[in-house]
Design a protein that fits this description.
Elements lengths: L2 E2 L23 E6 L7 H16 L13 H13 L6 E8 L2 E10 L8 E9 L8 H16 L4 E7 L4 H6 L4 E13 L2 E10 L3
Parallel strand pairs: 5-6
Antiparallel strand pairs: 1-2, 2-3, 3-4, 4-5, 6-8, 7-8
Helix pairs in contact: 1-2
The protein binds coenzyme A.
């Protein structure tokens, strides 16, 4: 069964700088899934729809060349869901009421040499739920899971430059440790850096 997160953070305003305990205008519930058999057809559909909506709104969540549709997203999502495993690949979802508000994946490489750190992938908030603390709540939950459940010491990610994501993660304690200049070419006149970020200690 999917693990239901019972931390109180999800019942409060998780945005940086928010008054402690200030109520959210909507209820946010976080849950974690680490077994492919726990992904219902309904959840699979919601994840695909969210990923399409985020990508086609220009979001940096893994598909650099919008527009995308079912045929692009479904096979990639199915591969990702099929690899879920408690030790090294967990899906974290955020719901507002019944609706899927956002999701992300936490991974750890099983190779012993690098098994003490993990990576965050595909973090996304549905465009209809932006700016309400969903993304921050997901990142905090990934951090808690990495530290308390996987025993990791650091988290890493690579972000698309030019989106302000350094600031979003920076407010959550992450720091930029470098960048691959001009690594990402979205169009002949749109070349961006790939920004490398780390969170440690957890
Ligand atoms: C990045 C993302 C997940 C943030 O989700 P969210 O639910 O809107 O995040 P929050 O509500 O927790 O935002 C917290 C703060 O960061 C700010 N913020 C959000 N996205 C930002 C961005 N791209 N750049 C700079 N600041 C951003 C918000 O304005 C908010 O600030 P405020 O509290 O002063 O209003 C969301 O914008 C998204 O899905 N983007 C497309 C996909 C993407 O870029 N993913 C990141 C992959 S590395």
């Amino acid at each position: 069964m999917p693990q239901q997160d019972d931390t109180l953070e999800s019942a409060h305003d998780a945005r940086p700088g928010a008054r402690p305990g200030a109520p959210l205008a909507f209820t946010l519930t976080l849950a974690q899934i680490s077994d492919p058999r726990d992904v219902t057809p309904g959840l699979r559909r919601e994840l695909i729809d969210c990923w399409i909506a985020v990508t086609n709104a220009g979001g940096a969540a893994g598909f650099p060349f919008p527009p995308v549709g079912d045929g692009d997203v479904a096979p990639v999502l199915d591969g990702l869901l099929g690899r879920l495993a408690p030790d090294n690949s967990r899906l974290v979802i955020a719901r507002s009421g019944e609706a899927l508000a956002g999701w992300a994946v936490l991974k750890r490489d099983p190779y012993r040499l690098v098994g003490h750190w993990g990576t965050i992938h595909h973090l996304q908030t549905h465009p209809g739920f932006r700016g309400r603390g969903v993304g921050s709540a997901l990142v905090r939950e990934l951090r808690r899971t990495a530290r308390d459940e996987l025993g990791l010491e650091q988290l890493r990610l690579a972000a698309r430059g030019g989106e302000g994501l350094e600031d979003f993660y920076g407010r959550l304690g992450w720091r930029e440790i470098g960048r691959w200049p001009g690594a990402l070419r979205f169009a002949p006149d749109d070349t961006r850096d790939e920004v490398l970020m780390i969170l440690t200690p957890l």
